[in-house]
Design goal:
Length: about 375
């Protein structure tokens, strides 16, 4: 019997995150393990008079392509893929990994070829969103593999994931509207600030955010959600930052990552594990060594690292930066096929300064 929380989740995603209306064409893509949500989303989309377009995929098939395809095949974009970026007006990506290490054996460079080839398509996709022509949301589901990564029993991890989304609340949508209101106050405090300085253990990073827009991530584009973010100026970041948790990306990860910036660019990088992969991603294109995002995690329901960036970047009391692609809606101009989020914990002695004024300490905004 399917968990009834999937029906609740589908209702929140359609009614709040995507605001699905009659006549919408809603593309839902994700792994086969997400079958319960595919079914619940089909029911809810249909109930609202919209049109569901379901795209379940196999992790094993995607891995086989990376293992066996030629460079030409890796770079190929089918007309169907192009159509699916340009025609639907609502998109849901389901993130649910059956094997969090499935790409560890893929030779260096092959993921970069695939990502580079899709870069124009991805840029076009986000331009549509920035113009208001379409809406997108990514949702994270519990799986056995991710529960193991988090060091939890599966039932415990399910409760953690659904709890982070307030799906057990009597009115989850009302709960997210209140979260939106609370985070809006933080975004308002940061609006108009020119320089943000992050100070924490082995970290002293200064970022120029003058003229940029701070956005309230309140469950409309990620679910569960909980952060405020912007895109900094591409050529002004300076200093160094150490990341508190593992840095997973696209089925692989780097651990113990430390970065040094000069004139907005990473000039030195270290990792205790996965250094070759880190450098492969940093050298993907010209924009990969520059920041595309600065953000502060605001979700009080998420208080521990789980190995899933979808949750770790939302931990209340943390900050994170993303290397690569910036957000045009925030005023960002950095272009890259990469967007890699990495988290720095501020809860034990961390400080945030806005134009020299202390505005947050130990992860709490004043």
């Amino acid at each position: 019997m399917a968990d009834p929380r999937y029906d609740t989740l589908a209702s929140v995603l359609c009614g709040y995150s995507l605001e699905v209306e009659a006549g919408d064409l809603v593309l839902v893509e994700g792994p086969l393990v997400a079958r319960p949500l595919f079914v619940s989303m089909t029911r809810e989309i249909t109930r609202r008079g919209a049109h569901p377009l379901m795209r379940p995929r196999s992790e094993a098939i995607g891995t086989a392509v990376l293992e066996r395809a030629s460079d030409e095949q890796l770079a190929y974009i089918s007309p169907i893929e192009d159509w699916e970026q340009d025609v639907p007006n609502k998109f849901l990506d389901i993130w649910a990994e059956e094997n969090t290490r499935r790409l560890n054996g893929i030779p260096a460079g092959r993921q970069s070829i695939r990502r580079q080839a899709r870069r124009p398509m991805i840029e076009r996709f986000f331009e549509r969103i920035a113009r208001g022509e379409s809406r997108w949301c990514g949702v994270t589901l519990p799986t056995e593999a991710q529960a193991q990564e988090a060091g939890m029993a599966y039932a415990e991890y399910e409760d953690f994931v659904f709890g982070a989304g307030h799906l057990n609340d009597p009115d989850p949508i009302a709960a997210w509207r209140e979260i939106s209101r609370r985070q809006a106050a933080v975004a308002e405090r940061l609006a108009g600030v020119s320089t943000v300085r992050i100070v924490a253990e082995d970290t002293d990073l200064t970022v120029d955010v003058s003229g940029r827009t701070w956005l309230n991530a309140d469950g409309h584009q990620n679910f569960p959600d909980g952060e405020v973010f912007t895109s900094p100026h591409e050529e002004s970041t300076s200093g160094h930052i150490a990341f508190s948790f593992d840095c997973p990306y696209d089925g692989r990860e780097a651990t113990g990552v430390r970065l040094w910036f000069e004139n907005g660019r990473v000039v030195r990088e270290e990792a205790t594990r996965g250094l070759e992969f880190l450098r492969e991603m940093l050298d993907m294109d010209e924009g990969a060594r520059r920041l595309g995002e600065l953000a502060f995690g605001q979700n009080p329901e998420i208080q521990r690292a789980t190995g899933s960036i979808a949750f770790d970047e939302k931990i209340g009391g943390t900050c994170h930066v993303a290397l690569g692609m910036a957000f045009p809606e925030a005023g960002g101009t950095n272009v890259s096929a990469l967007h890699w989020d990495m988290v720095c914990d501020l809860r034990d002695g961390g400080e945030v300064y806005a134009d020299g004024e202390l505005i947050a300490k130990d992860g709490t905004f004043r």
